[in-house]
Amino acid sequence: MLSYPSTISLSSRTLNHLADLNRQHRNQHRSRWRRLDPGRQSLLALAHLRNGDTYTRLAAGFAVGVATAWRYVQEAIMLLAAVAEDLARAMRRIRQLAYAILDGTLIPIDRVADQKPYYSGKHKRHGVNVQVIADAAGRLVWASPLAGSAHDLTAARIHGIIDALTSADVMTFADKGYQGARGSVRTPFKRRRFRPKLSRRQKAVNRAHAKLRARGERAIATLKTWKILAKLRCCPRRATAIVQAILVLHHVEANRYAG
């Protein structure tokens, strides 16, 4: 098998952060000698998450077995997910926003034995529904997945997003998929069958609403720069840990110039 040098579009700060977690984990468990040191193990995991490299390619590039590459990646995801913020902790930052943007996106998956919960009737494919909260500039703040068959509003309610945003009194803009959310969530006017057409004022409000809401697409685009999310080829139940791990790495990368 041929090999070639490549790059990962991340800073050394992110690599060092993950390497520190791996090093602490090894020290706590008094791990024996391993094929790769914490830095190389972290690089392998980042190549999988950011570039979407398969375990076979990683094993060849890092001169380890496929099973070892899989184990290193899973260990890194576990360590990152363990320090990820839940919604309650994320709300501390969300409360300080001028307003928030709520949106959902589907991450495709391979078919599984229990297909029905993961089939999205809207997208006509299997996947997981990831709910995303962004700030006014479109920066990714928090995200969490659910089975793809769940409607956006249902997924947001299951995660407790609607109640949390309403309790914090954070003005939130969302699309028509969240009609009926109420609380502090604002959705555009929707024309219904056998009802009068929208007035000029309502159309103007919808246009202004769309301009604000469109910035939330940046957060979804940011999430999908992690190529592993192009299509999850693992058990969809691992999607939560993967998204949590990516959120931790994203915040480390986004804050690399802070302080």
List keywords for this structure.
259 residues; alpha/beta; six-stranded mixed beta sheet; nuclease; Transposase_HTH_dom; endonuclease activity; Helix-turn-helix of DDE superfamily endonuclease; endonuclease
Walk me through what this model shows.
With 259 residues, this protein is α/β, with parallel strands linked by helices. The protein has two domains: 71 residues; 138 residues, no CATH class. It contains ten helices and six strands; from the N terminus they run H-H-H-H-H-E-E-E-E-H-H-E-E-H-H-H. Strands 1, 2, 3, 4, 5 and 6 form a six-stranded mixed sheet that branches. The chain is elongated. The chain starts with 11 loop residues before the first helix and ends in a 5-residue tail after the last helix. The mean pLDDT is 92. InterPro entries: HARBI1_dom, Transposase_HTH_dom.
